[in-house]
Write a structure and sequence with these properties.
Distance between the termini: 65 Å
Order of helices and strands: HHHHHHHHHH
Shape: elongated
Strand content: under 5%
Largest sheet: none
Structural class: mainly alpha
Helix content: 55-70%
Number of helices: 10
Length: about 230
């Protein structure tokens, strides 16, 4: 009986993966707005009613794809967070996230592109979505930070938002604020690169990206070694 359940579980897992793979293929061709369970079932030779046993709705399928994408970029960030110094780790994470985005532009667009009309991401996506930014915040908690400039004080409303956060409580609100600025700047660069907004300025963007990653490391207060200068 256990062997039978294991075989059924394995078969279900394999078909679930096939459904998600086909859905990703259709995302690349038609975009998220046109994704439907019927079209995925048809492409896999399944009757429409059968696919609902795996994903009760299109939104359930989208949520599974979104979680997979967030976990993939989270894996890339966490695996890259190695090096002798926090600064080296920070730079490595920046480059690893870029490599993932360039290799998976449609998954990137799914999680960081335009909102999908009619779809609202559930709370289930939050843990996976937090992995990559938490990898950067973890690096900032490894040593003493020396901000390149003091900067203006946090506005009262922003300070209250940051003081009420439930993550990275070991870091100051000012440090977390700089990390969020750097994080949003990273994905701004990636969006510009993937969607062709650097054409005519810094395309290809390899040297620009590397330089910006160094600048953001300075911005968050990660000190330079002599070899970094």
């Amino acid at each position: 009986m256990n062997a039978g359940r294991t075989a059924r579980d394995r078969a279900r897992a394999e078909l679930t993966q096939e459904i998600k793979n086909e859905a990703r293929r259709q995302l690349a061709v038609d975009g998220a707005q046109k994704l439907s369970l019927r079209s995925v079932a048809r492409a896999l030779g399944m009757v429409s009613s059968a696919i609902y046993r795996y994903f009760p709705s299109r939104d359930d399928l989208l949520t599974a794809l979104i979680i997979d994408a967030y976990n993939a970029v989270g894996d890339a960030a966490e695996q890259a967070a190695v090096g002798e110094t926090p600064r080296e780790k920070w730079i490595a994470v920046y480059h690893a996230v870029r490599e993932w985005a360039r290799a998976n532009p449609h998954e990137y667009a799914l999680i960081y592109g335009s909102p999908i009309p009619g779809y609202q991401a559930p709370q289930d996506t939050v843990v996976a979505a937090a992995r990559a930014p938490l990898a950067l915040l973890g690096i900032l908690g490894e040593g003493e930070l020396k901000p390149a400039f003091a900067g203006p004080p946090l506005p009262k409303g922003l300070a209250a938002q940051l003081d009420a956060r439930e993550f990275a409580r070991e870091l100051s609100s000012e440090t977390v604020n700089r990390a969020i600025v750097a994080w949003s700047q990273l994905f701004g660069m990636l969006t510009f690169e993937l969607f062709g907004q650097f054409v005519g300025s810094v395309d290809p963007a390899d040297e620009f990206f590397a330089h910006a990653a160094e600048q953001m490391a300075d911005f968050v207060g990660l000190t330079r070694n002599v070899s970094n200068r």
